[in-house]
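dude i think i finally got it to work??
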Amino acid sequence: MLHYLSKERTITGIDVPYRLAQTMPMLTQQQRIDHIKTLMSTGELAVSIRLFGLLFLLYGTPIGKLCMLTLDDVHTDPTGTAIRLGAQPAPLPDVFVPLLLAHLDELDRRTATNVDTNWLFPGTRAGRPRAPYTILPKLRQIGIEIQGARNTTLRTLVEELDPTSLSRMIGYSAITLDRHGNAATVPWSSYVTDKHPHLRKPHA
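look at this
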């Protein structure tokens, strides 16, 4: 909060050291992968929770925002399947598509509440999406630490794609993603030469 107030000049004269890399909760990448494998294979959780958890671990999207996804945010064409989380749909790896289809099939077979809803994750109340507090305990049940998983996911993504392109795909601001890139010691000013070595200037 002090960083925000200082940045917005609500308070002045305070020099607050930035400690994102030191204080940010993190999982290891292997822990993240293990959680993904668990969600892909477990029979202890409903298909909807498994899909929800996978989307969270793939894109780091806030739980509340995932709850607000609609069926219109799912895009399928001959090139593949994508989920609209930002201005540009984020591709869903093929290995996860069967779980998405299983979830959509369950939605089609609903006979109780929210039968005609357009929510991707409908709640028990008519016309309402599923509430985050009904999902978080299910994810924690299998050991997912929410903040650490989110940070690790974003850290991983910014190592693969520049913040501006990534922000259009997953809906985070480029500034937020750039901070994760800095914490991961990814020098995005050299992104082009890192990804395209032939563009590097020759040594004198």
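The CA atoms of residues 159 and 186 lie 7 Å apart.
im so relieved honestly
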